[in-house]
Amino acid sequence: MTTLEYALWGAVGGGCVEANQLINAIQRTRTWPWMQDSEPKLGPFIFSLLLRVSLGLALALAAGLSGQISGEFGAIAVGIAAPLIVQEMAKRANAHTDASKNLPSTGSAG
User: Fold this and answer.
1) Can you tell me the distance from the alpha carbon of 14 to that of 94, in angstroms, rounded to the nearest whole number?
2) pTM of the entire structure?
3) CA–CA distance from 4 to each of 7, 21, 72, 106 (Å)?
4) In the prediction, which pLDDT does 70 show?
């Protein structure tokens, strides 16, 4: 697959998640969700959509270019899972940072 294909399929995955969430919100509110006072307005909804699609695009692109995925379905799956991937990576980075704070200093005595 080309660089552009990884990116586009990842964006499709992010868009699939947003479409599913919109379907659920429409079923819950029985109207456009942004028309309800208890729901985000249209502007934040669109911004959220753009963030989710961009996140899916970026992670599928990175995974594809590093050889972690090889096909369209894999790129879509990374796009769908992108928020969870970022969340888990952040948890592990924080755990690593917290653990390194407890290590003894290795400064040289000179």
Assistant:
1) 25
2) 0.79
3) 5, 26, 11, 46
4) 87
